Known about the structure:
34% helix; single chain; alpha/beta; Rossmann fold; 17 strands
Amino acid sequence: MKSFPKKEVIVFAFIIKFLYSYNKFDYTKLQLELILKVKFFYKSTFIIQFINNNKENKDKTMIKVYFLGAGEIAVPVIDKLVKAENINVVGIGTQLDKPAGRKKVLTPTPIGKWGLDNDIEVARIRSVNDETFIKKIQELAPDVILVISFGQLLREEILNLPTYGCVNIHSSILPKYRGASPIITAIINQEKETGVTFMQMAKGLDTGDIFKIFKYPLKGECAEVVEHNLGVLAADNCADVLAGIISGKLKNTPQNHKIATECHKIRKAEGKINWHETAAKVVAKINGFNPWPGAFFTIKTPKRDITIKILEAEVIDNFEGVKPAVVLEANKNNWIIGCQDKAIKISKVIPQGKKEMTGVEFLRGCNFIKQGTILAEKGE
């Protein structure tokens, strides 16, 4: 802010001098009001100048971030980032709205929806490698482009635009589980822990140097819960990590590419349950594929084949007479099915064309699943 105009300072100094010289101890009401106004004016001007100076200094120390995200895991991160005192989010981008559901209603990504809910502009980006987007980033001149669950590959020109490059938050403990489905794959493989990795983006898929890893213990949650919790974990540490990168206090460490593993994009068909696998593996798939694509099996009925998604299940130890794919118990208390080695108890399901319900609720209205029913032959 510019200093107070010299002409006005002289005028107010003259007024004060006049008032004091008129009668030092016998002020009229008008004189007192003028003195108070002058004092208030100068005090206010000083406060405004102090605030503006502080704002200018703060703007210089704030980290300019352009945010790219789409999935649910990205929502806690951007929600906290826009409130961080050391972060200036100069722009937010997400994928295009896409048709969803049976009626194919055009639906925004979770980040797009967050923007609508919070009245914050979120750009829908067809391609980050488009010249229009590149020009926009050049104009905004961010210190960092932060990427999490975005779903588009950034070419080298984009990677080199920000002052400190592009930082990705990957939902695994790198170099393990590079690729498209790290959360699902970690759960299905019955890992004891997973986490989020802050990494420098490079040309290869999740091959860049690592800045920081935050670990998260897996305790049998479904993928939806794990994704949310990893998002919160990333959000809680994001501003500090970015500050560490900018200041140089946080050093980047190359990945050990020799021990790297990759995970593929999940296909819907992978959700089909194989009852001839171990009970632990079946439950891991039920958790890993919840909410998508859903772990399911199909049973033949006199009228038609019915597909049933299993949302929750647990391993039952020491159940006698276990046979794979055989219904061992089906009553008002339990729905228990045999696997390769042990049994599992079905807690929640979504039958085809119906809403979520408990396993026993489904059995009440079902006359084609009973004790001894075979759900699949070996190899099916």
